[in-house]
Amino acid sequence: MSSTTAAKKPKRPHGYRRPDTLTDAPTHFCPGCGHGIVHRLVAEVIDEMGLRESAIAVAPVGCGVLAYDYWKIDVSEAAHGRTPAVATGIKRVQPDKLVLSYQGDGDLAAIGTAEIIHTANRGENITVLFINNAIYGMTGGQMAPTTMLQQKTATTQAGREARVHGNPIHVCELLATLDGSAYLERVSLSSPSNVRKGKKAIKKAFETQLAGLGFSLVEFLSPCPTYWRMNPVEALKHIDQALSKVFPPGVVKDKTREEGKDA
After folding, report:
1. 198 part of a folded domain
2. How would you write the pLDDT of the chain (263 residues) with one tens digit per residue?
3. I need a surface site. Which of 105, 107, 149, 184 has the fewest CB within 10 A?
4. Cα dihedral angle (140, 143, 149, 152), rounded to 10 degrees?
5. Domain around 196
6. Structurally, how many domains does the chain consist of?
7. Is residue 5 assigned to a domain?
8. DSSP 72
9. Which residues contact 229 (CB under 8 A, 6 or more apart)?
10. Is residue 17 part of a domain?
């Protein structure tokens, strides 16, 4: 191709622009980690819904602890597992704000089990974003409450056994039994199409909160290449081949849909 021809070729528009709510900070996450994807989705939804000045996030102890470095919104820290309790207090004092709790599976389903269950049971009008990578990421790859049977971790080196370690906890299905939960959906980060579904789920959860309908939670099946001992491509395939079989993606509970059917 001649230089003349090349010069006449129109420039392609950029396929991606950083959301205004997402900072230009270097990431601290491992290569292939799903946390950064969810951070971006949250920022995109907040931008599109015009919520940056009214959104407040609560960050956990865990890989997501530095969320305040990435979002241009108010972010509060909470003790390990206590983000739903802190988010509840913020929402009750400032009911006009969008309040979201950001948690990993160890934070939410182990030390924070009581908080998440009672927050959902009371129907607290907050949104929880739950990262499920079936392992403890920050502390060295130990077994988490969501670790799958036969999955090898730092503390289940021969694989998780139900008789010894119990079974993985299905958070969405557990919370669906509580009257206070309004919207629960599980999504996957394994492909661009699934990531788009995740963005829609975040928006639906925020809309549920803004409508005053009660507790909402979105669970993300997220890769952890470092402690799955896989490369990023293998980790994404692993979500479809293994994790999604144990934790099927989809809407687990939607009170608005159920009430529409009753009507």
Report:
1. yes
2. 444 444 555 555 556 789 999 999 999 999 999 999 999 999 999 999 999 999 999 998 988 899 999 999 999 999 999 999 999 999 999 999 999 999 999 899 999 999 999 999 999 999 999 999 999 988 888 999 999 999 999 999 999 999 999 999 999 999 999 999 999 999 999 999 999 999 999 999 999 999 999 999 999 999 999 999 999 999 999 999 999 999 999 999 999 876 655 44
3. 149
4. 30
5. 25-262
6. 1
7. no
8. S
9. none
10. no
